[in-house]
Amino acid sequence: MITSFEWTLPRGTVIKGKWKRNSYRVERLLGEGANGKVFLVERQRSWYAMKIGADTVDLQSEVNVLQSIAKQRKGSRAEPYLVEVDDMRALDGKEYPFYIMRYIRGATLSDYLMKQGMDWFPVVGYSLLGKLAELHDGGWTFSDVKVENVMVADYGRVELVDYGGVTAMGKSVRQFTEIYDRGYWNAGSRTADARYDLFSFGVLCIQLHESQRLAQLTASLLPQNRMPEELLKLAHANPRLKPLTGWLRQALNGEFKDAREAAGSWRQWMHRPGQRHATPAPSWMKGLFVASAALLATTIYWLLNS
Amino acid sequence: MKQILLITDGCSNVGVSPVVAAAQALAEGITVNVVGVLDQGDLGEFGSAEIEEVARAGGGLSRLVNTRQLAQTVQMLTRKTVAQTIQQAVHRELQQVLGTSSIESLPPDKRGEVVRVIDELGETSKLRVALLIDGSASMKPKLHAVEEAIRDLALSLQARQGQSEIAVFHFPGSAYGDDCTLDLDWTTNVGGMTQFLPRLQMKGTTPTGPALMHVIDFYRKADYGNRKNDETDGMMSDYVV
Question: Does A248 touch chain B (CB under 8 A)?
Answer without folding.
Answer: no
